[in-house]
Amino acid sequence: MLSEEKKQKKKIDIMEKCFEQFCETGLRDTGIKDLAKACGMTAPNFYSYFDNLDQLIIESTEYCMIKIENELLEMAPKTKEDIQPFIDKILVPSRDFHSKEYRFMYQVFMSPAFLEHGKKFRARQFQRYRKYAEELEPTLGVPWDMTIVWILSLEQALIQYALFENSTMYVLQKISLEKMAQSMLSEKGPKHPAAKDL
Fold first, then answer.
1. Which CA distances in Å does 73 have to 31, 92, 136, 195?
2. Do the domain assignments include residue 135?
3. pLDDT tens digit sequence for 152-198
4. Is the residue at 18 inside a domain?
5. Number of folded domains in the chain?
6. In the predicted model, is pLDDT for residue 93 greater than 80?
7. Cα–Cα distance between 88 and 178 in angstroms, integer?
8. Does 32 map to a domain?
9. Which of 2, 113, 139, 157 would bridge with 173, disulfide CB 3.0–4.6 Å?
10. What CA–CA distance (Å, rounded) separates 53 from 59?
11. Is the Cβ–Cβ distance between 112 and 160 less than 8 Å?
């Protein structure tokens, strides 16, 4: 019998391999046999780690998308001087390395079967972004609620470019992010009256 630590490690390995398989073949065309083959295990063994296939889909998607999010946050600006280089370097790698992952995430969380889970995932994601924006506030001298608008705009630019690879949209969004950052750093205005309630 596996220890809890080894079981959790195995579960993470299963989630990563299943997520990779889902990203390759899509939600509709991926069966339990495909997942078992990808993981090198029999189908019944999945139920030692997950109650059902839906739980596997949800937890795999959340775990792997948070992993990507954490990679991006590690690269994210920590000072004013970091902002422009970050914008310059982040959009193309996001398209090249994460387009399949973003497509699958949308396929899952926009599905009626998983929409409520998607809403909860998004709410938790917003809190992570808020924490990052609050940590930047002393360094940038910009209220967190202004910074988070820029973060959400950046996120949409990353996702849209990864999903559709539209170079015209990419250029326009890049210019918009640059202008927004310049305005944000120059204004440093007061917090929005409702920000405390978010």
1. 33, 16, 12, 22
2. yes
3. 888 888 888 778 877 787 788 888 888 888 888 786 554 544 455 55
4. no
5. 1
6. no
7. 10
8. no
9. 157
10. 10
11. no
